[in-house]
User: What shape does this take?
Amino acid sequence: MPRRTRIQTEKRELILEAALEVFSTHGFRGSTIDQIAEAAGMSKPNLLYYFRRKEDIHEQLMQRLLQTWLAPLRELDDIGDPLTELRSYIRRKLEMARDFPRESRLFANEILQGAPRIMSMLEGELKSLVDEKAGIIQGWMRSGKIARTDPWHLIFSIWATTQHYADFDVQVRAVLGPDRGGEGRFEDAARFLEQLFVDGLKPKH
Amino acid sequence: MPRRTRIQTEKRELILEAALEVFSTHGFRGSTIDQIAEAAGMSKPNLLYYFRRKEDIHEQLMQRLLQTWLAPLRELDDIGDPLTELRSYIRRKLEMARDFPRESRLFANEILQGAPRIMSMLEGELKSLVDEKAGIIQGWMRSGKIARTDPWHLIFSIWATTQHYADFDVQVRAVLGPDRGGEGRFEDAARFLEQLFVDGLKPKH
DNA sequence: GCAAATTTTGACCGGATGGACAAACGTTAT
DNA sequence: ATAACGTTTGTCCATCCGGTCAAAATTTGC
Assistant: This one.
């Protein structure tokens, strides 16, 4: 537990905020300490006074990120109506993609490169959380509350579809064009995903 | 049209293959010419004889990639049964994620960083292709062959779910664990996605 | 107000990296 | 065989970048 002065607390926060911006758009290797320092409004040696190495900033950022990231899944529980529970999980994840796109991209960057720094977390904390929630979903399937399918791949598909709107944002906006690519795109996505996950594409007649 | 000798054709191909490997795991900035040269089994100056700049390699790779990438969507047409047509599009995309994960990651990397080198392609060629196919899908909806929903977001969700198995492969494998994370994961995914996109999660009773 | 502790800065270092270049080596066509 | 052309290599350079350091400036505790 390093004791921190007021200035240290403030400046470290400032640096982490700047680093999130820079890392999430250029990746770890693509970002320079100078860039981060400038974004944080300080000189490079000054920044290095607060974080001794570039990697320390990244590690700290990842540490925090993972907790935020798992939060919505932790909330998934057995008490409500299963379909409603899943719908609100999808909604929460989509809101995170909308409100924290930089965090999503930082995470995506790390996974894309093979997750060298967080692999143990994936195999440990993440896996056991997913296994636990998959168990709950399986219970819902057994009791006939939702259709029988693979709970793990269901979770993957929710992650994939929602994070897509953060990670592939530029592509989404490019394809939708100026008229449909505005802020409304998240509501359109929410409506679409709800329908997809509940009813699929088969026509009702 | 630069005229090429036999050796040039071969060596350029060798370099592009090596560069795909390196770029897709370390990103553009994270990769060095030396790394690519070594992977291609030649010296750095030798590599630079075939591609004058590192960026030229990347550009060439992107150029080709985009054509491969759009091919499955181009095949989507109006002649077959709509649901079958969409299912086989999903299957083709999933096969690409399985067989060409490096291409998928290279593409994801580029988009994540804001697509600086291919933005015009996204706004031009990609957008018009998607718009065209969205039109076909809308036709299917109007004639009641599939449920009414947003065709653009439908296409996004197919991209997201299938490419997830290439881009987030390490996470998928970490979560599934050693037993379920083997080669069979793509068949499980195929079964799951088929059910999701056709029937959704609502139970039939 | 002042000494001690903390923060900020400019200058600097060493290694990595993208790229240039000329000379050496190989291939090919006549 | 040899001249012209294509290929490969060793050497070198300039820049960038992560990180150090000591000195200067500022804040804090008494």
About this structure: Residues 5, 7, 32-34, 44-45, 48, 52-54 of chain A lie near DNA strand D (CB under 10 Å from a C1'). The longest helix of chain A spans residues 6-30. Residues 29 and 84 of chain A are 42 Å apart (CA to CA).
